[in-house]
Amino acid sequence: xxxxxxxxxxxxxxxxxxxxxxxxxxxxxxxxxxxxxxxxxxxxxxxxxxxxxxxxxxxxxxxxxxxxxxxxxxxxxxxxxxxxxxxxxxxxxxxxxxxxxxxxxxxxxxxxxxxxxxxxxxxxxxxxxxxxxxxxxxxxxxxxxxxxxxxxxxxxxxxxxxxxxxxxxxxxxxxxxxxxxxxxxxxxxxxxxxxxxxxxxxxxxxxxxxxxxxxxxxxxxxxxxxxxxxxxxxxxxxxxxxxxxx
Length: 246
Known about the structure:
Layout: E1 2-7, H1 14-24, E2 28-35, H2 39-46, E3 49-59, E4 70-79, E5 84-91, E6 115-123, E7 129-136, H3 147-163, E8 167-172, H4 180-188, E9 190-191, E10 216-221, E11 226-232, E12 240-245
Parallel strand pairs: 1-2, 7-8
Antiparallel strand pairs: 1-12, 2-4, 3-4, 5-6, 6-7, 8-10, 9-10, 11-12
Helix pairs in contact: 3-4
C-alpha cells in the first residue's frame, strides 16, 4: 500500500500535484490546505472516495490562482473503499469556521484557524486493515518551540493514543524535526522519514527560500513496517511525502 501526503498550498500547484499523483498511483492520498470546492475535482482525477474536515475560510483574492471569494479549506484523506472515518479537533470545532487572518503576534496562537486530526480505515489487497491518520498543527514564528504548539502536540498524542492501537500518521506538523515539539511526537511514535533529509520544504516553490526544516511527517505506531519513504520536490511548496506499507 502506497501512501502520499502533500500540503498542496490551496490551488497554487494543481498543475504539478495531479500529474505527480497519477504517476505515483498511490492507494491513499492525504492533503493539507485543500479547498472544499476542489474535493470533487480530486475525487474524479484520483478515482477515490474522500473524507474532509474544515480548518478556516481563505480569502481567495490573496495567494490563489482562482478568486472565488471566501473558500473553506482544511485537510482530507482520499482512498478507494474507505471503511471507517473519524476525527477529533485539537483546536476549535467544525461548527465554527472562521476567516483566516494573518496573526498580529507570531508568538501567539492564530485563533482564526482550527486544527485537527482525522483518520480512516482502509483494507489492502491481502485483506489487512490499516488506519491512516492526517493532521495539520499550528505554525510558530521561525519554527521556534511555543507553549501552544507543545499543548497541541500533546493533545494530538493523547487523541491518537486513546483511540488507536496502531496507525500511520502523516501531515504538516509545522514543527521542525530536531526541536522539542516534533521530537516529543517522535519519542512517542516512530519517525520514518530518513535522517538524510534536512528539509521537507521545497527550496524552489516555497515562498521563503532557504528554510531547512523537516516539518512534514510519516509516523507509525504498532507493528507496521514501512519501506521506500522519500520526499519528492517539484510538487508543492512542501515536498510530497511518499511511503509504502509492507
